Amino acid sequence: MSLESILSSCAALLILLTAMGIVYAIYSAVRAGRQKDYFAAIHKELKVGQRVAFAGGLYGKLVRIGAETCDVEVKSGMVVEVSRYAIQKIVN
């Protein structure tokens, strides 16, 4: 095997890996933008009395909505203060 064929194979591999990296970066940016829009919409729709699900798997009913935190009543009747940004979805 000659040095030229090894270098051309390495160059082709480098070009392929670079193209894959660019595609992945674009895909990640688009996905992050969609996710940001989704969570912005959820935070605008929050109302007292809605059932919500949190990142840790906690479900509850909103009792108070503040700027940074929310009070959530869980099934046992206990009211817990959690970060507003931990809300993953509104459950119907």
Detail the topology: elements first, then pairings.
Layout: H1 3-45, E1 51-54, E2 59-65, E3 69-73, E4 79-83, E5 87-91
Antiparallel strand pairs: 1-2, 1-5, 2-3, 3-4
Radius of gyration based on Cα positions: 23 Å
**Helical amount among residues, as a percent range?**
40-55%
Shape: rod-shaped
- Given as residue ranges, the uncertain stretches (5+ residues, pLDDT < 50) are none
Question: What is the class of the largest domain in the CATH system?
Answer: Mainly Beta
**Order of helical and strand elements:** HEEEEE
CATH topology of the largest domain: SH3 type barrels
How are the strands ordered across the major sheet?
A: 4-3-2-1-5
Query: How many DSSP H or I helices?
Result: 1
Distance between the termini: 66 Å
Q: How many separate domains?
A: 2
Main sheet, how many strands, which sense, barrel?
5 strands, antiparallel
The proportion of residues in beta strands is: 25-35%
By CATH, the architecture of the largest domain is named Roll
**Quantity of strands, as a count:** 5
By secondary-structure content and strand pairing, the structural class works out as alpha+beta
Please state the average pLDDT score.
Answer: 93
